[in-house]
Amino acid sequence: MLFNSYEYIFIFLPLVFFMYFFLNKKRLTTASSSFLVFASLFFYSWWNISYLPLMLTSILFNYTVGSILSKESESKISKKSILVFGIICNLGLLAYYKYADFFIENINYMANQHFNLPHLLLPLAISFFTFQQIAYLVDSFKGETKEYNFLNYALFVTFFPQLIAGPIVHHKEMMPQFTKSKNMVINYKNIAYGLFIFSIGLFKKVIIADTFAKWANAGFDHSTVLTFFEAWSTSLSYTFELYFDFSGYTDMAIGSALLFNIKLPINFNSPYKALSIQDFWRRWHITLSRFLKDYIYIPLGGNRKGGARTYINIMITFILGGIWHGAGWTFILWGTLHGLALSIYRLWKNFGFKMNKYIAWFITFNFVNATWVFFRAKEWGDVAKVFKGMVGKNGIMVDKGLHRVVEFLNLSSYIKYGKLFGTSVSQHGSYKWIIVATILILVAKNSNQIIDRIKLSTQIAFCMSVISVYAIFNLTHVSEFLYFNF
Fold this sequence. Notes:
Layout: H1 6-25, H2 29-45, H3 52-70, H4 79-111, H5 126-141, H6 150-158, H7 160-163, H8 171-179, H9 188-221, H10 228-259, H11 277-283, H12 286-297, H13 307-325, H14 329-350, H15 357-376, H16 380-390, E1 396-398, H17 403-408, E2 415-417, H18 430-443, H19 447-453, H20 458-473
Parallel strand pairs: 1-2
């Protein structure tokens, strides 16, 4: 079920909210938790019920392994071996459904074979609930989980606001919230703030992200050649689409959870304001960055085993992060480029070099924008098409009134006369939205800052109602969130 759907906004969310607190009011806490698990599984099954048994099996398996890891045992099998077994099973499940086609395609290519591809449909949310449960197993091994009730564990994994695309949460930061007595009664302040941030997320997704999606899709999927401005419009449109789509999802997840008095961790902190690639990864998809650091980079040795090993660990971490996002060489290259950029930045810092903050922002933003091309492209031809356009290989469209300037600068071989965006792609007007989005990401406060500083009033409630109604009236077609595909 999509957050940006009539079914979720007007039926599912209100019914679950009232039923959950009704059961808590009657002091039927077990029933309320059971109902929330059932509602979350219904929310998940709405998409494709055939993968519900897979999720339930995964939950039961990880709960069992986590319980074993958390207890003192005199078994001949070491806890470390049990942990490794649990992690391998989780990764094996993920690899089978997400990477089977990719592995077989590459085997066929390298060995000149013709093995049939299974063409498995990727189970919704498998990337997220797999990482979340791996974190649970490691935390159990370290003794950092406190209670092992199956119902509570199922609620931890399936809680519908964060189930599909995160944030990736820890058991210890979620479960104490469900057991607090004050969180079992309706909190009108949390309702107000929850609806407020949900409205912001809905507007980001429906009005901003989906608008940029039209221009990004036109350039990547429907054109054969892109001129200079068309290519930059294509790449920047996707850069802004991805940000407002995923941050919009996170806002709606945080807002939905807040209705139930549950506070999910912040996942975005104005990442396009970053002044370095390191700063970017401290702001973008924060819970994923936390997972990669805590469960891959640090166990590999982090920066504790010398300079060369540190850079190797950075590269391994980001290559695996790229693979996690998708089964394709473009994702692997995307992760590799970010690993290289972080390594270069680390060297830069170690040598004591500094850079003007405006130049630093410009370089960081354009690096992120360029690498998103690999992230979005469905095939290498799309990458070549966009980059050729961005460097002017296919010419630059300008108004005929500038012909004297073109001749003076001796640019006649590169310049074409006509409409700014040519005719191959319907991107006219995109530059206006790109300018607006750039101002928003650089000047406006993000959702987290707004929610921390704002004092709710009648005027603000009215403004939120207006943007919510406007967004709802624009729910004219099904629009999935981009991270559903990862």
